[in-house]
Amino acid sequence: MKLKWCDLFILGLMQCSDQFCLSNMLAAMSTHLSACSRIGQLKTERFEEVNEQIGYLFKLVQRFEELKLSSMEFAYLKLISFTANDLPSSSTDASVRAVHAQALQELYEHLLSLSVANCEDSASENDNTSGAAATSTMYNAVERYSHLLLLLPTMRWFKQAVLVELFFSGLIGSLSIETVMPFILAMDVMNVFDGTAGSDSLPGAHSLANIFCKND
Known about the structure:
Blueprint: H1 5-15, H2 22-38, H3 44-67, H4 71-83, H5 94-125, H6 131-149, H7 160-167, H8 169-172, H9 177-186, H10 205-214
InterPro entries: NHR-like_dom_sf (IPR035500), NR0B1/2 (IPR033544), Nucl_hrmn_rcpt_lig-bd (IPR000536)
Signal peptide: 1-19
GO molecular function: transcription corepressor activity
């Protein structure tokens, strides 16, 4: 999880982008950082680095919107990314490789079954179908499969430290994301909106603090 949380986070962002208007949020971040840079609160080099990452997120949102992934496709991409041996310190355990291979196979079979179903629907409307339909079915599945897998290398565009600063710094402060991640996974998500925190506290800060206190 320490190695791949960032991939899962980005895929989750893309999946929920419409629900919390990610594009608008990113635009607001960029505008705010630009203003900070102009008045000297943020070094130019740092602004360029962070704004570049925001630009990459914009591009990724566009790619995902064009492909219109289903929840099943998102689930398979998360599993494939999580089990991929694409980092120097990634696991090479045989069981992990087996899960990765199975996820790849199941994703393709899922896409093929959808393509076959669409082909059958078309065939019911047109009795003049032939072997060309089968070829088209296979091609459509392979094309979709290829487009989905090509999304995964884009995860390497991003710097974990910058994403932590953009999305988590208000919640975890100076703590490392690797330290906090196990507690985030264990916490009650509904407590993020607990109203017991002070008016100056960020939503969720009180709940997260309670979790740390309980584990002292």
